[in-house]
Amino acid sequence: MPAPPSIFAEDLRLGETFALGARALTVTEIVEFGRLWDPLAFHVDPRAAESSKFGGLVASGVQTIALFQRMCVDQQFSHWALLAGRSFRDVVFVKPVRPGVKLSGSLSVAEVAHRSPRSADVVLDGLLLDDDEHTVFTMTLVISMQRRTEGSA
Q1: pLDDT of 117 strictly over 90
Q2: In what order do the strands lie in the sheet with 135-146?
Q3: Residue 30 forms part of a structural domain
Q4: Is the pLDDT of residue 151 over 60?
Q5: CATH of the domain at 62
Q6: How many domains does the chain have?
Q7: What is the CB neighbour count within 10 angstroms for residue 80?
Q8: Could you tell me the CA-to-CA distances from 60 to 9, 36, 43, 111, 116 in Å, in that order?
Q9: Does the residue 110 lie in any domain?
Q10: CB neighbour list of residue 1: distance below 8 Å, 6 or more residues apart
């Protein structure tokens, strides 16, 4: 049974940054995901990918979003009083994600907007960096979170 949430909307501070840990995708993970959800040659066929504009196998952008979401849940959202995701916006794939490249992620609080006595919308800026600290992926996500008590600040 999961532990009750320990972080509520009013606990978050503007500019606060949360680490998401690090993760690398394997060739097998990229190919399997690509076969299921984005079967373009540069996601599913390492040999064909060599002659693509990427010069090798790369993860699907959809897989990059899924990986980022998993990192968010594993490291942060599983402890938050999260009610629902509301939107993804400004998704930017700066560099392709290649097999074996360690990606580290972070979330930064951009806004907390109290919608009702019980909930707030939280705007988060997400970031993935490669092992050379170059930006690979950015996005803004909006989540709905529970407030600790009705009308709390």
Answers
A1: yes
A2: 17-23, 103-114, 119-129, 135-146, 82-93
A3: no
A4: no
A5: 3.10.129.10
A6: 1
A7: 21
A8: 32, 11, 6, 29, 37
A9: yes
A10: none
Is residue 42 packed enough to be buried (19+ CB in 10 Å), middle (13-18) or exposed (0-12)?
buried
Contact 33, 58 (CB under 8 A): no
Inside any domain, residue 42: no
* Rounded-to-integer distance, Cα 130 and Cα 104, Å: 7
Q: Is residue 97 part of a domain?
A: yes
Residues 70-91 have pLDDT tens digits of 999 999 999 999 999 999 999 9
Range of the domain at 113: 9-25+58-146
Asked whether residue 127 carries a pLDDT value surpassing 80, the answer given is: yes
Q: CA-to-CA distance for 18 and 11, rounded, in angstroms?
A: 13
What is the CA angle 8-147-72, rounded to 5? 35
Residue with tokens 């606060």: 16
- Terminal C-alpha separation, the chain: 30
What would the pLDDT profile of 41-74 be if each residue is shown by its tens digit? 999 999 999 999 999 999 999 999 999 999 999 9
H helices, E strands: number in the chain: 4, 5
